Every structure is written in structure tokens, then in C-alpha cells.
């Protein structure tokens, strides 16, 4: 129970990697806010954490909407008194050649994967500056090198690393890192790469996030932590 009394927001935690991260950190004793757009998913994950003996609430929120982001942060503070950790996990994928990618599709990808991370950091850093904190931004191996047919997705995940490094250089008492996993066996991976085998299970990512949360001193400020 290394995270007892720590309050954590995990975005996009109604399913996929986020669900595993929320449950893993719940088992470490943290108070968990499960958030996403689909109420039935976040309610279920939150209930499962509580049924396992953890402490969790769910708050609906779209990471692209500033008002929602503020509501999730204020709701967390109202419920648990503070926010110690944020895992910016919510994200969407797209597999298309650049010349096939619609301008609207590109914009949506940037909105969720980049603006969402920006909005959470914009609103949480001022809160965390008071008592310190930790932010883990989920980038990807696709944030480290360009991959055919993932141009828009790669651009968004490179941008997450840029935001992470810049924010990390702007603050002293808030640790900010990016986590860059290889392919992970989730709904997103199955939709983009049907029939292919992923490098990692969602629990491998959750395990790494738990290690960063419990031993942040092992990682440098602004680091992009690769996980393959
Ligand atoms: N799977 C991989 O191979 C892989 C590899 C490296 C990195 N990643 C990254 O890991 C993260 C999680 O991916 P995943 O594979 O678990 O995907 P997933 O199974 O599709 O889950 C995505 C999660 O994000 C939420 N979400 C999407 N749009 C949102 C929005 N506008 N506001 C709030 N929540 C939103 C979804 O919930 P709602 O739709 O209900 O809102 C869902 O909970 C993403 O950032 C992804 O880019 C994935």
C-alpha cells in the first residue's frame, strides 16, 4: 500500500490501458478518480476498485473540453482534498496514409491526444505547485519514431513529449515524465492492427506506471521512459 492517501486522476480509465492503471494504483492504496466520456464504463471500473477494497469515484469528462477538465480536477479536490498524481492516458488512434487523412480526423487526433494533455497540465500544475505532485503523460513508441500510416498519430505522440519536456523544465516541485510503450493489447490496437500480436499487455504498462508512482526518484525530470 505504497500510495495510501495519494489522490490520482487517470484519464481514459473506463477501458484499455487506463482501466489497468486505475485498478493497479487502487491496489497500492491510492484514491482513484476514474474519468472518461462513457459513464457506464467509468462507473463499472470505479465500482470494481471499491469492491476490491480500494477507494474510488467516477467523474465524467472529455479531455478536449476545458470545462470538463476543470470539473474533474475540482471534483477530485472536493472528494479527496487534493490531487497528487495525474496519468494523462486518454487517447485515440488512426491508421491512414497522410494523403488519406482527413483534416477533421487530424484535428480530432490532436484535440484528444495533445490538447487533452495540455489542458490537464495547464490546470493541474498550479494546484500541484503548492504541495508537489507527479504527472505521467502516456506517449508511445510512436512518439519516438515516425511509422508509415501512423503519421497523424505519431505527430500527436511526439507533441506529448514536447509538452512534457517543456512543462518539466518550467516547474521544480512537480515531477513530469512521459511513458512511451510499444504496442499494447487493447481495443485500440485490435482496431488498428487486426490479427497482429502486440508487444505488451495492458498490465505491463500499469506495472510501469505503478513503479514510477512509487519510486519517482528513479526517473529524471522530463524523461521519456521507453517500455518495449
Ligand atoms: N494500445 C497501444 O498499442 C498503445 C501503445 C502506446 C500508447 N498507447 C496510448 O495509451 C493510451 C490508452 O490507449 P488504449 O490502447 O488503452 O486505447 P483504448 O482501449 O481505445 O482506450 C482509450 C481510452 O481513452 C478514452 N478517451 C478517448 N477519447 C477521450 C476523450 N475525448 N476524453 C476522455 N477520454 C477519452 C476512452 O474512453 P471514452 O471513449 O469512453 O471516453 C478510453 O477509456 C492512449 O493515449 C494511446 O495512444 C496505446
Structure description:
This protein is an alpha/beta fold and 228 residues long. The protein has a single domain, classed as Rossmann fold (3-Layer(aba) Sandwich). The protein is 47% helix and 17% strand. The chain contains 7 helices and 7 strands. The protein has helices at residues 16-27, 39-51, 66-80, 103-131, 151-170, 187-192, 202-214, and strands at residues 7-11, 31-36, 55-60, 85-88, 133-138, 174-181, 224-227. A 7-stranded parallel β-sheet has the order 3-2-1-4-5-6-7, with helices on both faces. α2 (39-51) links the parallel β2 (31-36) and β3 (55-60). It is globular. The model has no long low-confidence stretch (mean pLDDT 98). The protein binds NADP nicotinamide-adenine-dinucleotide phosphate.
Amino acid at each position: 500500500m505504497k500510495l495510501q492517501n495519494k489522490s490520482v486522476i487517470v484519464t481514459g480509465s473506463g477501458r484499455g490501458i487506463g482501466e489497468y492503471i486505475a485498478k493497479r494504483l487502487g491496489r497500492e492504496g491510492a484514491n482513484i478518480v476514474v474519468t472518461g466520456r462513457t459513464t457506464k464504463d467509468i462507473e463499472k471500473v470505479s465500482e470494481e476498485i471499491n469492491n476490491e477494497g480500494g477507494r474510488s469515484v467516477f467523474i465524467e469528462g472529455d479531455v478536449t473540453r476545458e470545462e470538463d477538465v476543470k470539473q474533474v480536477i475540482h471534483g477530485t479536490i472536493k472528494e479527496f482534498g487534493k490531487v497528487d498524481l495525474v496519468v494523462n492516458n486518454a487517447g485515440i488512434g488512426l491508421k491512414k496514409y497522410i494523403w488519406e487523412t482527413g483534416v477533421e480526423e487530424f484535428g480530432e487526433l490532436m484535440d484528444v491526444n495533445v490538447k487533452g494533455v495540455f489542458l490537464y497540465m495547464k490546470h493541474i500544475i498550479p494546484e500541484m505547485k503548492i504541495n508537489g505532485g507527479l504527472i505521467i503523460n502516456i506517449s508511445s513508441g510512436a512518439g519516438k519514431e515516425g511509422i508509415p500510416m501512423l503519421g497523424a498519430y505519431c505527430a500527436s505522440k511526439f507533441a506529448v513529449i514536447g509538452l512534457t519536456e517543456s512543462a518539466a523544465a518550467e516547474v521544480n516541485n512537480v515531477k513530469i515524465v512521459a511513458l512511451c510503450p510499444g504496442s499494447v493489447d487493447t481495443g485500440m490496437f485490435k482496431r488498428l492492427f487486426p490479427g497482429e500480436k502486440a508487444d505488451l499487455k495492458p498490465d505491463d504498462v500499469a506495472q510501469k506506471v505503478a513503479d514510477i508512482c512509487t519510486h519517482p526518484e528513479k526517473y529524471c525530470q522530463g524523461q521519456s521512459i521507453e517500455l518495449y
